[in-house]
Amino acid sequence: MTVESHQSGSVVIVTPQGRFDTSGGPEVERVLTGHIERGARQIVLDLSRIEYISSIGLRVILKTVMAMNRTGGRVVLCRGNDQVRTVFQLSGVMIMSLYASTLEEAILKAQQA
Q1: How far apart are CA 16 and CA 32, in angstroms?
Q2: Of the candidates 19, 64, 65, 112, which lies 20 to 30 Å from 71 by C-alpha distance?
């Protein structure tokens, strides 16, 4: 699993690549936690390069959302494939309310924090 990060204004965009499961989840969590610890309050998790997400990936996302909520920040998810969107839909309304179909929309949602 590789995880790229870059800034767009005040928004940190994190783009993991590969499988967001037991093998890749810890690396994504490490990167996200690092950004939060360094003070990031607006994060977009760009899932356009994720092939598959398991319950481990969902757990990492939920932990990140909870950590950001405690700091007054916001996480927005975007551009997942059909399998990723299905997992989000099955996980409930909370995750879907954090979802944007484009990177531009996700950045705007993140800035509303």
Answers
A1: 10
A2: 19
Q: Which domain holds residue 95?
A: 2-111
pLDDT at residue 40, as a whole number: 97
Dist. CA 104–CA 54, nearest whole Å? 26
Q: How many CB atoms lie within 10 A of CB 92?
A: 9
Residue 98 in tokens: 């954090």
Q: In total, how many domains does the chain have?
A: 1
Are 58 and 84 within 8 A, CB to CB? no
CATH number of the domain residue 53 falls in: 3.30.750.24
pTM, rounded to two decimals: 0.93
CA atoms of 91 and 88, how far apart (whole Å) = 5
Query: What digits encode the pLDDT tens for the residues 48-79?
Result: 999 999 989 999 999 999 999 999 999 999 99
- Give 83's DSSP letter: H
- Answer for the pair 32, 2: CB distance below 8 angstroms, yes or no: no
Question: Are residues 103 and 79 in contact, defined by beta-carbon separation less than 8 angstroms?
Answer: yes
